[in-house]
Design goal:
The complex is a heterodimer of chains A (524) and B (375). Chain A contains 18 helices and no strands. Chain A is mainly alpha-helical. Chain B contains 11 helices and 10 strands. Chain B has a 5-stranded mixed sheet with strand order 3-2-1-5-8. Chain B has a 5-stranded mixed sheet with strand order 4-10-9-6-7. In chain B, strand 1 and strand 2 form a beta hairpin. Chain B is elongated and about 95 Å long. The chains are: A mainly alpha (524), B alpha+beta (375). Chains A and B meet through helix 5, helix 11, helix 12, helix 13 and helix 14 of A and helix 1, helix 2, helix 3, strand 7 and strand 9 of B.
Chain lengths: 524, 375
């Protein structure tokens, strides 16, 4: 046992019971809270997806009315983006960044507590809109005016919860930047940081850059509705398209906020199980930075059909295509890391390999829709739905699964059940494809997105997709079971856990001491 | 049942593999983008196939390397990890090669885009207005205009009748255009943003309040082409289809003449006095296609979202307030202004109907002339 553990009894004088979690300023406790919150939201958002897939199982209206269906698509997206994926990554950052850079805790622990505890209130308010007069927001998570202004009593609550979620994200991002900039162990230069730390550093800057933009956009919606302004009201001299420009100036970097930390996770896991150093570390860092930079220049590819001038369309088409270059570099580097390694295939590695492959498929469809003249056909169809679910589910969500399996033994001191983990992997991977692959065909055949009912020609693939959806949803209950089982016990994990694992977090005990590094380690 | 589902599942998987050797399986399982019937749609299809093939080739190389590695370089086969972990040469190669591929893609894409966006001299101009949840078409300079709404019966949607062959893709008044003519569409919206899209025409354009967006097409083949609103526009976004019928020049002229004479007959009869029965019968139809989506056929509305008309203060109060609400709408709500969407007879009919249906027994009769005066 390390010297840190012998000091534990002295250091661990924190409140017990429920209050420990309310007042905690500890990065691990807060990380756990974030992850539990994200998992809860994942299941709530997932339940909404089940409603969507049930209604789309067959043509005709069977279960819900169209207005409620629109609420489901809107809420599913908002909850998954702001409630599940982003908090899950912040939770991982909280747990891992201090341990990876050799720090005792995050730099701003009280703000850390605050930025978490905003979330349950914002989330509850958002979900509470389901019970309000006029129903939950149903204008899409993109909140385009004038449609969103037709929302009932839920409207101000939608805006307020987006504000709160944004404030929480910005504080989390500030904390991460300050921690990484100031609390690295002696000898850990920037170019020695693990890639997860690098990708989160860049992500945190993206968050600070764009969350205020979103806040501005929704505030303008608020004043348009309640205070007589006409930012987006054409009849009052405003411009409905202006909102889309502002929203997507936030929205495109947001896409990378949800994927860059995933790149960091996969870049940690693949070398471990290939027993070989990550190929092209510095090019990985530069590629991440390039993707982040380009993300500010491509927003209008979400709006190719709004009637932009030709030169505008050309600019955004070229800029979008460029993103394929750094993204390609990353994929090539991961493959080169595996090449001539000595691989084993534990659950985290399986999820990482599936990530590389299925994320790349999402990348290919992204490349296809970068071409404006074809995007006129793809835009707002199920082809788009398939694309962004490929990069977000077997992309971001699989990376989170991989991270949880990879670091859970470190966090709890217990190994998870490898057999069940693999079962979770295979079921998830098969059904995620049954769920989303047919949606490519639906989109190409001409099925628009966000519709509760469709013409009979789309029936076959919708049925398959729904079956995949239900099976994928059920499979995630297995994940919950595995988590609970591991937290409650299991074979003891060693400090290094994985044979090929490298990095400061593996030098700590499993589970690690309450304050990660009380004495800064020396990095050579 | 279960077996057939598994079979369908397999069809899907196998279908993807066969996508480009067979080029589409049975009618129920369209796998690929439509080729369409306009030059723009052919360009889009060709580009789509071009990029798809590039993507498949890259996938074969990258995933191929990955699978070889997964099969051969595994610990269980006694693989010993190599030590290499960087190579500037390799990094430069796999930065430059993708860049060159992108240039190869950008050239045809630019050409197609320039063609699609090129303003040309149109043979026919049609103004399209998106409303919640129907389309308005106006043939500019021809004095022909009409509203086009979903004609699928509600009973089919709620599974009380078998679904027809064009379920949800059929309208009461389709758009009729001539083939081999350059048609310019001027697209706008009256309430929220919609998007006008017929896949076979190869283009979609958003209909935005306050904007007039342009798109054009030149249909090569006579036929009926179906599409849908592509931008979420509220409750019945999934229920505002588009049907375009492309006819030869002579048939198109004939159709246009019919529309004009119908319109002339309408405006002649707008001046006479209508009876209660005539107005109520016509009003019921107008209500069904324009008002029932929100206020419901029962006049009960949807509590909290769309107000009831049954017993409402507007529908049972002073006539002129009711007329003004229907003509000018309620800004900031889903109630749109119908002044430009419906003619005097239809407006008079629907208001009369609303004032005398569902127990709103005001006995009021609203004549087309009253609407004309109130406009």
């Amino acid at each position: 046992m390390s010297t840190a553990t012998t000091h534990d009894a002295h250091h661990e004088e924190h409140p017990k019971g429920l209050l420990r979690w309310v007042f905690t300023t500890n990065h691990k406790d807060i990380g756990t809270l974030y992850l539990i919150f994200a998992l809860t939201m994942f299941f709530i958002g997932g339940a909404m997806a089940m409603v969507i897939r049930a209604e789309l199982f067959q043509p005709g209206l069977q279960f819900v009315n169209p207005q409620f269906f629109n609420s489901m698509t809107t809420m599913h997206a908002l909850i998954m983006v702001f409630g599940a994926v982003m908090p899950a990554f912040v939770g991982l950052a909280n747990w891992l960044i201090p341990m990876m850079i050799g720090a005792p805790d995050m730099a701003l622990p009280r703000m850390n507590n605050w930025s978490f505890w905003i979330l349950p209130f914002a989330g509850t308010m958002l979900i509470g809109t389901l019970f309000m007069q006029g129903g939950a927001p149903a204008g899409g998570w993109t909140m385009y005016p004038p449609l969103v202004l037709q929302t009932g009593n839920a409207f101000p609550f939608l805006i307020f919860s987006v504000h709160l979620l944004g404030i929480s994200s910005i504080m989390g991002a500030i904390n991460i930047i300050v921690t990484i900039m100031n609390m690295r162990a002696p000898g850990m230069t920037m170019m020695k940081m693990p890639l997860f730390v690098w990708t989160w550093l860049i992500t945190a800057y993206l968050l600070i850059a764009v969350m205020p933009v979103l806040a501005g956009a929704v505030t303008m919606l608020l004043t348009d509705r309640f205070f007589g302004t006409s930012f987006f009201n054409a009849a009052g001299g405003g411009d409905p398209v202006l909102f889309q420009h502002i929203f997507w100036f936030f929205g495109h970097p947001e896409v990378y906020i949800m994927i860059l930390p995933a790149f960091g996770i996969v870049s940690a896991i693949i070398p471990t199980f290939a027993r070989k150093r990550l190929f092209g570390y510095s090019s990985m860092v530069y590629a991440t930075a390039s993707i982040a930079f380009l993300s500010f220049l491509v927003w209008a590819h979400h709006m190719f059909t709004v009637g932009m001038p030709l030169t505008g369309e050309l600019f955004f088409m070229y800029a979008t295509m460029l993103i394929a270059v750094p993204t390609g570099v990353k994929v090539f580097n991961w493959v080169a890391t595996m090449w001539k390694g000595s691989m084993t295939f534990e659950t985290p590695m399986l999820f990482s390999i599936a990530f590389v492959m299925l994320f790349t498929i999402g990348g290919f469809s992204g490349l296809m829709m970068s071409m404006a003249p074809v995007d006129f056909q793809y835009h707002d169809t199920y082809f788009i739905v398939a694309h962004f679910h490929y990069v977000l589910v077997p992309g971001a969500v699989f990376a989170i699964f991989a991270a949880v399996y990879y670091w859970l033994p470190k966090w709890t001191g217990n190994m998870y059940d490898e057999k069940l983990g693999k079962l979770h992997f295979w079921l998830s991977t098969i059904f995620v494809n049954v769920l989303f692959f047919p949606q490519h065909f639906l989109g190409l055949a001409g099925m628009p997105r966000r519709i509760p009912d469709y013409s009979t020609q789309f029936a076959g693939f919708n049925e398959i997709s729904s079956i995949g959806g239900f099976a994928f949803g059920l499979t995630q209950l297995l994940f919950l079971y595995i988590l609970i089982k591991t937290v409650r016990g299991g074979s003891k994990a060693t400090d290094q856990v994985w044979e090929g694992a490298e990095g400061l977090e593996w030098t700590l005990s499993s589970p690690p001491p309450y304050h990660s590094f009380t004495v800064a380690p020396e990095v050579k | 049942m279960f077996v057939s589902k598994i079979k369908r599942l397999l069809t899907a998987v196998v279908g993807f593999v066969l996508l480009f050797s067979v080029g589409g399986a049975s009618a129920d399982y369209v796998l690929n983008l439509r080729q369409g019937v306009t030059p723009i749609s052919h360009d889009a299809y060709d580009l789509h196939m071009f990029v798809f093939k590039i993507c498949v080739s890259i996938a074969v190389v990258v995933f191929g390397a990955m699978f070889i590695s997964i099969l051969k370089h595994r610990k269980s086969k006694g693989a010993v990890p190599a030590q290499f972990h960087e190579s500037t040469t390799v990094e430069i190669i796999w930065t430059v090669v993708p860049f060159l591929i992108l240039i190869a893609m950008a050239i045809p894409a630019t050409k197609a885009l320039v063609v699609a966006e090129k303003p040309g001299q149109p043979d026919l101009e049609i103004k399209v207005t998106g409303y919640q949840w129907k389309w308005g078409y106006e043939y500019l300079g021809e004095n022909v205009s009409f509203i086009s709404a979903l004609s699928t019966p509600t009973a089919q949607i709620y599974n009380k009748q078998p679904k027809g062959p064009n379920y949800l893709l059929e309208v009461d008044h389709p758009l009729v255009v001539p083939v081999h003519k350059r048609v310019r569409m001027m697209i706008t919206a009256g309430d929220v943003i919609h998007s006008w899209w017929v896949p076979d025409l190869g283009m979609k354009k958003d209909a935005i309040p306050g904007y007039i967006n342009e798109m054009w097409f030149n249909i090569e083949k006579e036929g009926t082409y179906r599409g849908q609103c592509a931008e979420l526009c509220g409750k019945d976004h999934g229920f505002m289809p588009i049907v375009v019928i492309a006819k030869n020049e002579a048939d198109y002229r004939k159709w246009l003449a019919e529309q004009k004479s119908k319109k002339a007959a309408d405006s002649a009869s707008a001046d006479r006095d209508w009876s209660m029965d005539e107005l109520k019968t016509r009003g019921k139809k107008v209500f069904a296609s324009n008002c029932a989506a929100c206020h419901q056929a029962s006049g009960m509305g949807v509590p909290g979202v769309f107000p009831a008309l049954k017993g409402s203060s507007v529908a049972t109060g002073p006539k002129i307030a009711h007329i003004n609400t229907v003509l000018h709408g309620r800004p900031g709500t889903a109630m749109s202004a119908f002044a430009k969407q419906l003619n005097d007879i239809d407006l008079a009919a629907v208001i009369t109907y609303e004032r005398n249906a569902w127990g709103n027994n005001t006995g009021d009769l609203v004549q087309p002339s009253e609407i004309k005066a109130a406009r």
